[in-house]
């Protein structure tokens, strides 16, 4: 008797505990995809957490565009999807979640194949906080002659915040230094990612800075694919120049199977610093860590690489030409249509993409410029 | 673990000590009092878990549950009243482990990953593996009712003190929204996991209710079944990351030896 009673009580408890309740309404309020009516986009829309960048063809008027949005299921957007607005200026949209409890504002920017800056002196940074304000990192940006921001440099700083190793900007792998050739400079340092990064099999983080976008959502799963190199470019680049100084870290290491760093005796770290001019095609609009310098990548048109990179505690000036890959030419029509892109890539450990390098390796870069050929032959 | 066994050992010595004292005490009254006391040592295993009641809607699926082997050892002193010894009262002491291992699928679940003195807070959607392991000293204050010569029911409150507390696990196959559902989305797939440890946020003192029965199966040997229902959230009230309360609910099954 008593046991059966007990059994009733217990099974009641188990039943109550194992009853899965109705699924809650979605709390997220994301723009998942954006489209513009007609064949006006020149690149896939760049969707970030609070910002959408639409790059349209050169002959498209920005005065009245009506983007259509796909949102988190159940979410709503204001103004409504398909509303025509003037995109000469950035426009804001407000997305409200299905459960009504959360809203997010997006800035939507429409750009034609814009002319990016060709000279980079790393004087402008904004501080961005992460981990609820517990750490702050630098984001470099460029301003045009009118003082308007024209480009934001990408880095993996945001992912490094997740390793819990950083606090102030100069504890991140990429930050602004005070000792430039002139004014400030970019500083890239290879860092240890601590126990957390090690558990994820990513024991070091090379400082990196590049023209393109860093895809945070994919950073942990596919770090090589998370670096989207390149931005539209409608000139023919001829020369890549600037200044660097490089001090390699003391001990070059590579991770073993379990993610622990193992010293590789006799090996010294080396940095990377190059520019790539390539064709953007649907499905491969950008280059990533897997293919940015691949010999067999058919879309790379020309590269500018420094052949005699070396460690130096003083500034070293470099100026290297863009060299066309064998058999490659630049099609003037494609150039006009905005089908080409350029990427400038720098890293404090050239094998940092495979998490090999020396903690402490420090690359400083300043006064970088891209020179363009005035005419195509 | 070592301390655990030491404590168990001292508990046994303590009980045997009472026995010896009872046997050797001089005064007639005291002797009579002790003679009417009943002593029991018991051992068993706890099956159950720390569960929200009812399950919050954030939990979409329980993928696996492992009660783990939770040992329990203890002693009870009982005083029976009246000539029919139908009613009684007692106090016990026992050392026990409460544990479980679960794997669940959650949606928009409060999560906090702490490392190197820094915190990554957010909402997790995906898989969560949780391990709860608590070693406790429990003092039950119980009333007894004898249904028959063989069957005794018991009920009453208990107080417990946890001298070792672990609550940890990892998240995988999903994504975190940093801060709140509007925050940056960080995906984890494949082998990528992020571990969390809320052990230091667990409550040391808890209380609850116990209800059970024991059956005398052979001479002085009893089979016991007790349901322990915790009345406190296992976490300190200041801990907000797990947005719902978890209650320890365990069925204790074991044997006792009555002196």
Protein architecture, described:
The complex is a heterodimer of chains A (377) and B (259). Chain A is mainly β and 377 residues long. Chain A has two domains: 31-111, Immunoglobulin-like (Sandwich); 119-373, BT2081, beta-jelly-roll domain (Jelly Rolls). Chain A is built from five helices and 29 strands. In chain A, strands 8, 12, 13, 20, 25 and 29 form a six-stranded antiparallel sheet that branches. In chain A, β9 (125-130) and β10 form a beta hairpin. The longest helix of chain A is centred in the first third of the chain and has 17 residues, at 2-18. Chain A is globular, with a radius of gyration of 24 Å. Chain A starts with a helix and ends with a strand. The model of chain A has no long low-confidence stretch (mean pLDDT 89). With 259 residues, chain B is mostly beta strands. Chain B has one domain (2-258): Beta Barrel (Porin). Helices cover 12% and strands 65% of the residues of chain B. Chain B is built from two helices and ten strands, in the order ααββββββββββ. Chain B has helices at 2-24, 28-35, and strands at residues 37-51, 59-66, 70-80, 87-115, 118-146, 151-178, 185-197, 205-218, 221-230, 247-258. The longest helix of chain B has 23 residues, at 2-24. At the A-B interface, α1 and α3 of A face β2, β4, β5, β6 and β7 of B.
